[in-house]
Each structure stands twice: as C-alpha cells, then as structure tokens.
Specification:
Elements (H helix, E strand, L loop, with lengths): L1 H12 L8 H6 L11 E2 L5 H9 L4 E5 L5 H4 L5 E2 L4 E5 L10 E5 L3 E7 L5 H14 L7 E7 L6 H10 L3 E4 L1 H5 L10 H7 L5 H9 L4 E8 L3 E7 L15 E6 L10 H9 L2 E5 H6 L1 H4 L3 E5 L4 H13 L3 E6 L9 H11 L2 H4 L2 E5 L4 H9 E2 L5 E5 L7 H13 L3 E5 L9 H9 L8 E6 L7 E6 L12 E5 L5 E5 L2 E5 L4 H14 L1
Helix pairs in contact: 5-6, 17-18
Length: about 500
C-alpha cells in the first residue's frame, strides 16, 4: 500500500508521486497494490511472482472472474501457461508461493432481516452462504438491502465484519428484479412493496448481466443471497449509503481551535449546510463540496435542509460555531426528529461533533473565571420570553454562579443587558469582575475586564460573550497584564496544611 499512500499524499499536496517500484515503473501496476476493491489472498507471494514477471519468465494469467483489464492491457508479458501464475477468482482459494491469488469485487451479498434482529444471526447466515458456495469473502464488494433496513444494526455489523460498505435500494428498484428472482414472495411484497429483499438487492447491485449464484437462504429472523457481477462492482454507484448527518461545532473561529474530528467530518462530507459566515471560516475544508447556505435567522431551514439531504443517502455536515450543542443547531435537529417523527429521518445516522464553546474560549483568554460552579444564559428573547430569562438570572444571581451571557445585545435588542445588570447588582457587588470577549479566534479579537457596575449595552453586540464573576471571582495583575479567576476552595486546604506544619 505504500505506492497508493504516496499517490494520495501527492494528490493532497498538488504534487506527483515518484514511484520507483520495479513493476510499477515498467508495467504501470503493482501486484501487491491492485485497484480499489480488489484484495490479495496471499500477499506474501506477490514479490516472487512480480520478480518472475520482470525477469521475463513464463507467468500465466488465469482470469476466472472480474475485469482484469488493468493487467491484460498493461503490456506485461503474461503467458498462457506457466507454473508461476496470477489467478483472478472470486472462489475461495489460498494460492501458493508460485501462484498469487487476487480476488476482484464481483460479489453482491443481499440480506434482509426482521426489525432488531441480532447481528450474530445475520453474520452467521451470511458467512455460511459464502463458504457453503465455495466463495471468497474477499470478493464481496458490498452488503445490500432494502432502504427500510438502512438503520439495522445487524446489516452494518455484517458490512463491518467483511470490511465493505453497506448500500440500500428502495422497494421500486428491488421490484424491478421480480422476474429474475429464484424465490419471489407475495408475503414479502405485501409487507415491503417488493417480491424479494435479499435476492432482489443482490441482483440490483450485480447489474443487468449479473447472475444469482446463491439463492435466498433463511434463518429464524434473517435472509441472505449472493449475486455475481461480470465486472467489478463500483460501490460508489451502487444503491445509496445510509444517510448520515453530523452536527459539527467548529469552535469560535480560529482553525487552531477546530478539533481534528470536526476537520475529518467536514473533509468526508458530501454536503455542508451552514450560515455564510461560518462557511467562510471553514473554506479550506469544504472546497469542491455541495454547499448550502442560509441567513442568520434561518436556523430551522438549515436543520431541515440537512435532514432532507441526509435522507437522500448523503453524508451531510451541519455547521455550528462554538459547540454544536450549546445554543446551536444540535438541539433543533433532535427537536425536528422528535416533533415530526418521519420514517426517512428516523433511519439516519445522526451524531454530534463537539467544539470549543465561546464561554470556554473567553474563559481561557481571561484566565480561569469558570474555576468553580457556573451557568450560561442567553439574553435573546426571540425564542424565550424575557420573563423566563429574568427568572433564571435571579436564580443564578442568588445561587452565586459565575454567569456566561450569550447574545447580550443586538441591533433590535438594547434593553435586556441593562435589565440583567440591574438584577445581578442586587446580589453581588458593583466591583465584581466582568470579562467582555468579542470576535474570539477571529480578526479583531478583544478581551477586556470591567467592573459589573460599569457594564452597559454599549460594551457588547452579537459577536460578544460576557462572563460575570461570582462573589468569589478575583481580578489580579501580574507581569503587566490582568487575569480573572474564581478560586474553587483550595485556600482552606492550603491553610489546614500550614496549620498542621506550624503545630508540628
């Protein structure tokens, strides 16, 4: 795989891979590095067979399955006969030191199962079907089924066991295979809209010239069947993958605050949905992808769009700034799933990538204001009545939490921050340290400290987060700069140690 790795790196860097392996340089291929989907039964034999081919010795090419044009059209001096050979087959074959066995991706493994069937049962049934027919699991290109099964754990566990993708077809596509089925079932048609799931899916993946070589086999709760394609099965053009939606927290803005998980998710996504400003912040990762932008206030539109794209079998990233679960879109996605209960959405793979939140970034820039108990409150009353926000502010103030204020001021909302200050000043002194952080991780970043008594709406906007200290929060100056921190209680522990030392 070293040559493939070199080519991948060269492609990412915009360069060229200097591949000097003898067979690559001379014939344009490496026997130990076949095309995607192909696998070697006995890779230890590749070096000796390649050496014989380079030396001009008689090396036979025995093609029993698949498309071997990458070898046949290479100009390599393969012979009709020879003790040394390259064998291409989808049969179970171990090969030998003088015979390299390559398995092409020609088999489609169709499966079906009852809702919630155990992975062990389906895996056992499928492996029995493969080995019982004398086939190699290395030639299974994909596990295929009806789209209603796209969220079945057993199907995905089987695909993971074989190291291949799972792909799905709708009932109409499988019903088009009716005349090719060995075991059509009216009962299955009545239940799911096609006359065969396992056989139909296998044939659909194998293509119009494919052949059903292992008819439907059944266990208590599962079915399997195998079809052979005359050529390699390209899984990227076979059925649809299970739709995937990841809500990605990209942090406050700086790429240095973006997690590796978020970067990987964005690079693997087919579609990226987000607010225009956030898309600009990740432009280096989403170039060439399908981008779906909307305005700041169209959160529901973005979440709904992401779900609909994922339901089409796409790998979708829905972008949030900061952390995806803190005043962001993760909760809206789950709310839509909960309220609408749509079958095509319920089958999706949904996950959340956490990110550095604005309150974490502000706290880190300021020192350690969140060193003890804290809470976060949004001052936006677009979705929450301000009476409820006031109740939470009073409770937080009376409980002496450090408070992170999100959405403190906008062009249309100028009174909420002033009202919050009035409530807080009833429970804590006017000299309580306040951190005002704006544009964190972006151009124009600023972090400043003021006392609570001086805080006004003019200090903030929608790109600002405000951290208001508790009664224990301290502002100190060291080395020409200030720090804000909230002690957790270690001072009493340190005092006890001093007392014990003094008494001893």
């Amino acid at each position: 795989g070293a040559n493939r790795l070199a080519r991948s790196i060269a492609g990412g860097l915009g360069g060229r891979a200097a591949v000097t392996t003898a067979s690559d340089s001379r014939f344009g291929f490496g026997l130990d590095d076949p095309p995607p989907g192909w696998r070697l039964a006995n890779p230890q034999a590749a070096k000796g067979v390649a050496a014989a081919l380079l030396a001009g010795g008689p090396v036979a090419l025995r093609v029993e399955a698949g498309n071997a044009s990458w070898l046949e059209g290479s100009g390599a001096p393969f012979a009709d006969q020879g003790e040394t050979a390259v064998r291409i087959t989808d049969r179970d074959c171990q090969g030998s030191d003088g015979e390299l066995v390559l398995h092409p991706p020609t088999l489609a493994l169709g499966v079906g199962c009852e809702r919630g069937a155990g992975p062990e049962e389906l895996i056992s049934l499928a492996e029995e079907a493969i080995t019982g027919a004398g086939l190699s699991p290395f030639s299974v290109a994909c596990v295929v089924s009806l789209d209603l099964k796209s969220d079945e754990e057993a199907v995905h566990a089987l695909a993971a066991r074989l190291g291949v993708p799972a792909r799905f077809f709708d009932a109409k596509e499988l019903e088009a295979m009716k005349d090719r089925l060995a075991n059509p079932s009216s009962q299955v048609f009545k239940a799911v809209g096609c006359h065969g799931v396992a056989e139909g899916a296998a044939l659909a993946a194998a293509g119009p010239d494919g052949e059903l070589i292992v008819p439907k086999k059944t266990s208590k709760r599962a079915t399997s069947a195998i079809a052979r394609s005359r050529c390699d099965i390209d899984c990227s053009n076979t059925g649809r993958m299970r739709g995937k939606l990841t809500v990605v927290g990209i942090g406050p803005g700086s790429s240095e605050w973006r997690t590796p998980e978020a970067a990987r998710t964005l690079s693997e996504a087919t579609d990226v949905v987000g607010y225009g400003l956030y898309m600009d912040l990740i432009a280096d990762l989403v170039e060439g992808k399908a981008l779906h932008e909307s305005k700041m206030t169209q959160e529901e539109k973005r979440a709904r769009k992401a779900l609909e794209l994922a339901a089409q079998g796409r790998n979708v990233a829905l972008v949030s700034s900061g952390d995806a679960g803190i005043y962001a879109l993760a909760s809206l996605v789950f709310e839509l799933l909960d309220r609408e209960d749509r079958a095509e959405w319920n089958r999706l793979e949904v996950s959340i990538n956490p990110g550095i939140s604005a309150l974490q970034a502000a706290a880190a820039r300021a020192g350690a204001p969140m060193g003890h108990d804290f809470c976060a409150i949004s001052l936006s009353d677009l979705l929450t009545p301000f009476e409820e926000i006031e109740r939470r502010l009073r409770a937080a103030a009376e409980s002496d939490f450090v408070i992170a204020l999100y959405n403190p001021v906008s062009k249309r909302r100028r009174t909420q921050l002033a009202a919050a200050c009035e409530i807080l000043l009833k429970s804590r002194p006017a000299d309580t340290p306040v951190v005002i952080a704006r544009n964190l991780g972006r151009d124009g970043e600023s972090v400043k400290f003021i006392p609570l008594g001086e805080l006004t709406p003019d200090h903030a906007d929608m790109r600002t987060i405000i951290l208001i200290g508790s009664s224990r929060t301290r502002l100190i100056e060291r080395g020409g700069r200030g720090w804000v921190y909230t002690p957790r209680g270690y001072e009493s522990k340190m005092d006890r140690k001093k007392t014990r030392k003094a008494s001893s």
